[in-house]
Amino acid sequence: MDTIKAYWGGMLDNGATTFWEYFDPKEKGAARYAMYGDKYGKSLCHAWGASPIYLIGRYLVGLRPTQAGYKTFEIEPQLSLLGDFNAKFPLSEKGDYVSLESKNKYLLIQATKKGGTLLVQDKQITIPTDHQLKLSFNDLY
Question: 10 Å Cβ neighbour count for 72?
Fold first, then answer.
């Protein structure tokens, strides 16, 4: 989380509205835009800029497939690092998704597809399909 805030947040702090091909917080002025020997050669809307979405989904929310194509999947959220949050992640091209919300020491989770498991501490909880499960942090820890 600190890396995401420092690197991608650093771009935003420097006026970016999209994520750059490369960022060095020590570069100032026009030097921030130079790359490949060209004064303005740096892409300021680069494809890898979506990396924080993957990193948040995979490592902070902990979403990972346990069978190909997310036929089954697990979520192991790092609740102590996330604080209050709301997230929704696609599971298929058909529009299936899993959503999580952490608010006021409660975790709300729902999936539109069967096969999900929530992992918290030593607990394994089946993620409900098409209705929301509300869990108190007190029950999870």
Answer: 14
Burial group, residue 32, by CB count within 10 angstroms (0-12, 13-18, 19+): buried
- Give the mean model confidence (pLDDT) for residues 10-23: 91
In the predicted structure, residue 50 carries a pLDDT above the cut 80: no
CA–CA distance, 53 with 4 (Å, rounded to integer): 10
3-state secondary structure the chain: CHHHHHHHHHHHHCCCCCCCCCCCCCCCHHHHHCECCECCCCCCCCHHHHHHHHHHHHHHCCEEECCHHHCCEEECCCHHHHCCEEEEEECCCCCCEEEEEEECCEEEEEECCCCEEEEECCEEEECCECCCEEEEHHHHC
Question: pTM, whole model, 2 decimals?
Answer: 0.74
Q: How many CA atoms lie within 13 A of 23 on its CB side?
A: 23
Buried/exposed code over 115-132 (b: 16+ C-beta within 10 A; e: otherwise):
bbebebeeeebebeeeee
Whether the Cβ atoms of residue 124 and residue 118 lie closer than 8 Å to each other = yes
In degrees and rounded to multiples of 5, residue 11 shows phi and psi of -65, -45
